[in-house]
Design brief:
single chain; Protocatechuate 4,5-dioxygenase, Chain B; seven-stranded mixed sheet; two-stranded antiparallel ribbon; 9 helices; about 35% helix
Length: about 240
C-alpha cells in the first residue's frame, strides 16, 4: 500500500556539478526536494521506488544497486540506486549489471544520496514517456502492492514550452497544462492526474506525465493528502515539488 510520495523535477541541472555556475538558480528547488524526501523518510516505508521518465512506451525495472552517471553531461559523477540496500528480491526484479540508470533515475539516486537515504530498500522504474495512461495506472497499482508500506519518489518535469527560450519554444497551451498538473499534485487528486492528455503532454514535451499517472494508480484508495512545496519555470520548463502523505 502506498503510504507516501514525493514528486520532484528531474533535470540534470538539479545536480550542482552539472549546473556549474548556474547552480544557485535551482537552490530553492533542491531545498524543496530535500524537504520532500524527509516526508518519505518519516513514513517509514518497507520499500521505496524511484519512478522517472525514459524514452519509448515501455516500463523498465532497475534493481537496488543499479548504477548511473552524468558523464553524458560533461561531469564524471557516479551514483547508485539505494547503495547498500540490494537484496535478493530486488536482484530478481532487474539486472543491476550493465544497464545504466536513465537520467531521471540518476537524478533521483543523486537526491537520495544527498540526503543520506537509509530507510529501506530502493528500486527504480523507468516509464516510457509515451506509455498509455491505463498502463501507467496499472504499473502504479503493481508497485503499491509490492509491500505493506510503499513510498514513491516520482521524478518528472512539466512542459518545456513556457518561454521563447525554452527547449520546446513558447506554446500558449503550456502554462495551462502545467497549472492543471500542479493543482492535481498539490491536492493529491488522482482523477485529475489520470485525466492528463497524453497527446497534449507529448506536444508540450512534458516529461512528468507518465510518472505522475503511475503515482495516480499507486495512490488509488490510499486517502493521501497533498502539499505543494515549490513551483517555478526556470529555463522555460515547469518544475514542481510536492508531497503526498
Amino acid at each position: 500500500m502506498l503510504v507516501a510520495a514525493a514528486v520532484c523535477p528531474c533535470p540534470p541541472l538539479l545536480v550542482p556539478d552539472v549546473a556549474a555556475g548556474a547552480a544557485p538558480e535551482l537552490d530553492a528547488a533542491r531545498t524543496a526536494c530535500s524537504d520532500a524526501l524527509a516526508v518519505l523518510a518519516a513514513s517509514r516505508p518497507d520499500r521505496l521506488f524511484v519512478v522517472g521518465p525514459d524514452g519509448g512506451d515501455v516500463c523498465e525495472r532497475y534493481a537496488a544497486g543499479s548504477a548511473g552517471d552524468f558523464r553524458g553531461f560533461g561531469v564524471d559523477l557516479h551514483v547508485r540506486l539505494g547503495a547498500g540496500h540490494a537484496d535478493s528480491d530486488a536482484a530478481k526484479a532487474a539486472d543491476a549489471g550493465d544497464r545504466p540508470l536513465p537520467a531521471s533515475l540518476a537524478v533521483g539516486a543523486w537526491l537520495l544520496g544527498r540526503t543520506g537515504w537509509a530507510d529501506g530498500p530502493v528500486e527504480g522504474l523507468a516509464v516510457g514517456e509515451r506509455l498509455a495512461p491505463a498502463r501507467c495506472a496499472g504499473a502504479g497499482r503493481e508497485l503499491a502492492a509490492r509491500a505493506g508500506r510503499v513510498a514513491l519518489l516520482v521524478m518528472g518535469d512539466g512542459s518545456a514550452c513556457r518561454s521563447l527560450k525554452a527547449p520546446g519554444y513558447l506554446d500558449e497551451r503550456a502554462a495551462g497544462f502545467d497549472e492543471r498538473a500542479t493543482r492535481a499534485l498539490a491536492a493529491a487528486d488522482t482523477a485529475a492526474l489520470a485525466a492528463l492528455d497524453e497527446h497534449l503532454a507529448h506536444e508540450l514535451k512534458v516529461a512528468g506525465r507518465a510518472p505522475w499517472q503511475v503515482l495516480a494508480g499507486a495512490a488509488e484508495g490510499a486517502g493521501l493528502e497533498g502539499r505543494l512545496l515549490y513551483e517555478d519555470a526556470p529555463y522555460g520548463v515547469g518544475y514542481a515539488v510536492a508531497t503526498w502523505s
